[in-house]
C-alpha cells in the first residue's frame, strides 16, 4: 500500500479539482460550476489512471501536468515519461517528445513498455525528418514486439523507411576458425610437377591454423533519385585480423599474427537506371581505394564496373557484369597490374519457392611482373531453400576454379608455368528466430582444396564461420 506521505508526494505543484474533472473524463462533458476544493491529492495508481483517461479524451494539458506531477514523485518513472512524450507530441513539442520517449525506453521495466516507447520514438523521429534515427528506434521496437504480426509490420515499415532515407548503412562481421588462415601450403617440402626441389618452405608459408576475425561496414548516400534511376555515393571498409593458434605460433614463431591481416577501403559513386519496361536494369559504378597487407600498404586502385540485368520471366533473371581495375603497387611500378573481369549469372525461382543460381567468372590480369600475369575461370552454383529447416534457413554452394599463370617463374625452374585447380563447398545457415533488434546469427561451414603443379600453392581448408546478418 502507498503511505500517506507517498500520497502527498504524488500531488501536483499546481493542484486541480478531481471532482470537477471526473465528469469530463468519464462522459466528455464540461466541468460543473461547483467550486472545487483548493487541493486534491491522488494516489499514484489514481494519478496514472487519470493520466491515461486524459490522453484518451484529448485533454492534453491535463495529461502534461499529470506527467510532471508523477515525475516529481518518481523521476525514473517510465510511464510518466511516456505520458509526457505523448502530451508533448500533441502540443507540437515534437523534439522534446522524442527525448521523453527515449527516456521512457531507458527506464522501462518490461518488454511491452520498451516496445511502446521505442515505437513512439520512431514515429517522432520520422516526424522530425530524422529517418536514420527512426530506423534505430524501429529496430528497438522490433526487439520488443509483443507478437510476430507486429514484428512483421515493423519490418515492412523499416523497408519503406530505408527506401526513403538517403543514407543506407550496413554492418557485417564474423569469427571463423580455420585450418589455413594464411592460405599456406599443405607441406614443407616443395615440389614442382611432382619433382622435389632444393629447400623447404618456411613456417609462415605453410598452412597455419587459428581464427579469422573480420568486419565490414558500408554506407551509401543517395544524391538523386526518380522512378527510373538513382545515383549514390558509396564507401566501404573491410578489416580482417588473424589470431594464430598455439600450434601455428610454434611452427612460425617469428611471424606476428598482424602480418597475416588485411584491410580494404574504397569510396565511389554508382548510377542505377531502369532499361525497358519489363524489369530490366543497368548500373555504372566507379571506385578508388587502397588495400593493406598486414599493416603495410600493398596497392591502390581505381575501378570501373558495368552491369546489365534482364528479367527473363517472373522466376528467372539474367545478369552480365564487366569490370576493369588498375592497381598501383606500393613497392614499385614494376608490380603494377591491370585486371579485366566478366561475369554471367542466372537466378531462378523454383515452383516451391527454392532458389537456384549459377555464375561464371572470367578474369585476366596483366602486369610487367610475369608471376602476376594470369587467366582465371570460376564457376559457382548455389541452392537456397525457401522454407526453414528446423530453426534455420539453409543454402549451399559449390565453387570450382582454374587459374593459369603461363609465364610463372619458380626458383630453379624459371619457365615452368603454374596451373591451379580448386574446389570448395559451403553450407550456410541463417537463424532468423534468434535475433536482436532484427539482427540474427549466421553459421557457414566451408571446406575445400586447391591443387597446383607447384606445391607451394597446394592448399586445403576447413573452416566454420560465425556471423550476423540483418533480417530486413
Count the strands? Answer: 16
Helix share of residues?
25-40%
Mean of residue pLDDT? Answer: 87
Global outline: elongated
Strand-and-helix sequence, N→C?
A: HHHHHHHHHEEEEEHEEEEEEEEEEE
- Calculate Rg over CA atoms: 31 Å
From the N-terminal CA to the C-terminal CA, the straight-line distance is 46 Å
Task: Quickly count the helices.
Answer: 10
User: Largest beta sheet: what is the strand line-up?
Assistant: 1-4-5-6-7-8-9-10-11-12-13-14-15-16
Query: How is the biggest beta sheet arranged?
Result: 14 strands, antiparallel, barrel
Low-pLDDT windows of residues: 1-38
Structural class: alpha+beta
* Percent strand: 35-45%
Task: Give the helices and strands, then pairings.
Elements: H1 4-9, H2 18-27, H3 44-56, H4 60-73, H5 78-90, H6 94-107, H7 111-127, H8 131-143, H9 148-164, E1 167-178, E2 189-192, E3 195-200, E4 210-225, E5 229-244, H10 246-251, E6 262-275, E7 280-293, E8 296-311, E9 316-329, E10 337-349, E11 355-367, E12 374-384, E13 393-405, E14 418-430, E15 439-452, E16 459-470
Antiparallel strand pairs: 1-4, 1-16, 2-3, 4-5, 5-6, 6-7, 7-8, 8-9, 9-10, 10-11, 11-12, 12-13, 13-14, 14-15, 15-16
Helix pairs in contact: 3-4, 3-5, 4-5, 5-6, 5-7, 6-7, 7-8, 8-9
Amino acid at each position: 500500500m502507498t503511505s500517506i506521505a507517498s500520497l502527498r508526494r504524488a500531488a501536483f505543484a499546481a493542484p486541480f479539482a478531481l471532482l470537477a474533472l471526473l465528469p469530463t473524463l468519464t462522459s466528455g462533458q464540461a466541468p460543473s460550476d461547483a467550486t472545487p476544493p483548493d487541493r486534491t491529492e491522488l494516489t499514484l495508481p489514481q494519478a496514472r489512471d487519470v493520466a491515461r483517461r486524459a490522453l484518451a479524451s484529448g485533454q492534453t494539458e491535463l495529461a502534461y501536468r499529470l506527467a510532471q506531477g508523477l515525475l516529481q514523485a518518481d523521476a525514473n518513472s517510465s510511464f510518466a515519461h511516456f505520458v509526457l512524450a505523448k502530451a508533448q507530441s500533441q502540443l507540437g513539442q515534437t523534439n522534446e517528445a522524442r527525448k521523453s520517449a527515449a527516456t521512457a525506453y531507458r527506464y522501462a521495466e518490461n518488454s511491452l513498455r520498451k516496445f511502446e516507447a521505442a515505437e513512439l520514438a520512431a514515429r517522432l523521429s520520422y516526424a522530425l525528418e530524422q529517418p536514420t534515427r527512426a530506423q534505430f528506434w524501429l529496430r528497438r521496437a522490433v526487439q520488443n514486439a509483443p507478437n510476430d504480426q507486429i514484428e512483421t509490420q515493423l519490418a515492412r515499415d523499416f523497408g519503406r523507411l530505408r527506401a526513403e532515407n538517403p543514407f543506407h548503412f550496413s554492418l557485417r562481421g564474423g569469427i571463423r576458425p580455420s585450418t589455413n588462415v594464411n592460405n599456406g601450403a599443405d607441406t614443407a617440402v616443395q615440389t614442382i610437377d611432382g619433382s622435389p626441389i632444393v629447400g623447404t618452405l618456411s613456417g609462415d608459408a605453410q598452412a597455419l591454423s587459428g581464427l579469422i576475425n573480420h568486419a565490414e561496414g558500408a554506407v551509401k548516400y543517395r544524391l538523386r533519385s526518380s522512378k527510373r534511376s538513382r545515383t549514390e555515393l558509396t564507401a566501404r571498409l573491410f578489416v580482417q585480423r588473424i589470431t594464430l593458434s598455439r600450434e601455428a605460433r610454434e611452427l612460425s614463431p617469428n611471424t606476428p599474427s598482424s602480418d597475416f591481416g588485411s584491410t580494404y577501403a574504397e569510396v565511389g559513386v554508382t548510377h542505377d537506371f531502369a532499361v525497358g519496361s519489363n524489369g530490366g536494369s543497368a548500373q555504372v559504378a566507379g571506385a578508388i581505394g587502397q588495400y593493406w597487407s598486414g599493416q603495410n600498404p600493398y596497392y591502390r586502385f581505381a575501378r570501373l564496373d558495368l552491369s546489365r540485368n534482364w528479367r527473363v520471366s517472373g522466376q528467372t533473371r539474367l545478369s552480365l557484369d564487366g569490370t576493369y581495375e588498375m592497381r598501383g603497387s606500393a613497392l614499385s611500378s614494376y608490380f603494377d597490374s591491370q585486371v579485366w573481369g566478366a561475369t554471367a549469372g542466372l537466378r531462378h525461382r523454383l515452383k516451391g519457392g527454392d532458389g537456384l543460381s549459377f555464375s561464371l567468372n572470367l578474369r585476366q590480369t596483366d602486369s610487367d611482373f610475369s608471376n602476376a600475369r594470369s587467366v582465371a575461370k570460376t564457376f559457382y552454383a548455389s541452392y537456397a531453400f525457401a522454407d526453414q529447416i528446423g530453426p534455420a534457413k539453409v543454402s549451399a554452394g559449390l565453387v570450382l576454379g582454374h587459374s593459369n599463370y603461363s609465364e610463372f617463374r619458380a626458383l630453379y625452374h624459371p619457365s615452368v608455368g603454374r596451373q591451379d585447380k580448386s574446389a570448395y563447398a559451403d553450407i550456410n545457415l541463417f537463424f532468423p528466430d534468434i535475433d536482436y533488434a532484427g539482427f540474427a546469427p549466421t553459421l557457414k561451414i566451408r571446406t575445400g582444396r586447391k591443387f597446383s603443379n607447384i606445391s607451394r600453392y597446394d592448399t586445403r581448408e576447413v573452416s566454420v564461420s560465425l556471423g550476423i546478418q540483418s533480417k530486413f
